[in-house]
Automatic annotation (TrEMBL):
GO terms assigned for molecular function: hydrolase activity
InterPro entries to which the protein is assigned, alphabetical: AB_hydrolase_1, AB_hydrolase_fold
Organism: Collybia nuda
Record-linked Gene3D superfamilies: alpha/beta hydrolase
Domain AB hydrolase-1: 29-307
Protein name: Alpha/Beta hydrolase protein
Keywords: Hydrolase
Residues annotated as transmembrane: none
Length: 322
């Protein structure tokens, strides 16, 4: 894990983030983590380094050391305010700023929120040049039939039952069920292996091994690092997790099919795999069919497949950066 930085926000709130690359670069990439994650900028991408990109990975509200969005504020508005404050902190005066946003899995929701945000709510959006979403989720309030390709566990945890059953009872039961599995790094690593790695097909396992060797990672290193992030993500509060289904179903601040020309002129690069059971491929295809300037890249594998093709993905996404 890289060094964690903390930004003090109004109202006594804090925002944690990690970063790598060149802080003086006017090209900024903000990348959001998924469920049970924190901002992590370890192992910088060779492509981003070569392009002299400043890579910043915020910890989302309610996870790790980042304060939750106040209950009286819609999530997309609170997120935009936090990210605008972070960008202002990092770039107090840079009219040449070129901003890219991205995320993986659940992190694709905040990435899309910033992509489509009104410039009044998110002023740095005027500098936004593109959005990258890996194993993405679609806005559930507009994607009719989104639940048809969900697994049973996903249908229960973030599908219709999560919104029908009151008082977040389902979320509370899930916390009771998995909370003990995430208390230590050893238990969290076992949970990660069972959830993500043990279900990989041979082709994806081979891709993982090749990627790990190319990146110089020791066997088990990736799983251990992920486990550290998982434990840290819920070490202070479970509020981030409790909000996941509500955020997915919430008003994101825009409709993908009605964005104006100032927004859709920025491309959105969608990466998905047909074998992904956590973020169904159907959601990625809905995004590509609905956003006016979206491109789909399909890869083989499951939920983690994009990780093993990340250098290639960065090269294609940032093709205009030299």
């Amino acid at each position: 894990m890289t060094q964690e930085y903390t930004l003090e926000l109004p109202g006594g709130r804090t925002l944690s983030y990690a970063r790598n690359g060149s802080p003086s670069s006017s090209t900024l990439v903000i990348f959001f983590h998924g469920v049970f994650g924190v901002g992590d900028a370890a192992n910088p991408s060779a492509v981003l380094t070569a392009k002299k990109v400043h890579f910043v990975a915020p910890t989302l509200p309610g996870w790790g050391n980042s304060s939750p969005v106040p209950g009286t504020v819609p999530y997309h508005i609170g997120l935009a305010a936090d990210m605008a404050a972070l960008i202002k902190h990092l770039y107090p005066d840079d009219s040449n700023l070129k901003l890219y946003v991205g995320g993986g899995s659940y992190g694709t929701i905040p990435a899309q929120m910033l992509y489509g945000a009104s410039f009044d709510i998110f002023p740095p959006g005027r500098y936004l040049a593109g959005c990258l979403v890996l194993a993405p989720f679609s806005p559930l309030r507009y994607h009719k039939g989104y639940s048809k390709t969900m697994t049973t566990s996903n249908y229960i945890s973030i599908g219709p039952p999560s919104q029908i059953i009151p008082f977040r009872l389902l979320q509370r039961l899930i916390v009771v069920g998995i909370g003990g599995k995430l208390k230590t790094e050893e238990k969290a690593e076992k949970f990660i292996r069972e959830t993500l790695f043990d279900n990989m097909e041979e082709e994806e396992l081979a891709a993982f091994k090749k990627w790990r060797e190319t990146q110089g990672r020791a066997e088990g290193e990736v799983e251990r690092n992920m486990a550290k992030n998982v434990v840290k993500s819920v070490s202070k509060t479970w509020e981030g997790f409790m909000q996941v289904a509500d955020v997915a179903h919430s008003d994101w601040g825009f409709r993908p099919d009605t964005l104006d020309d100032d927004h859709v002129k920025r491309p959105i690069f969608v990466v998905a795999s047909a074998g992904d059971t956590l973020a169904p491929d159907d959601m990625a295809r809905w995004l590509v069919a609905t956003y006016k300037n979206a491109v789909l890249k399909s890869i083989t594998g499951g939920h983690l497949a994009s990780l093993f093709h990340l250098e290639e993905i960065w090269s294609e996404f940032l093709v205009d950066e030299v």
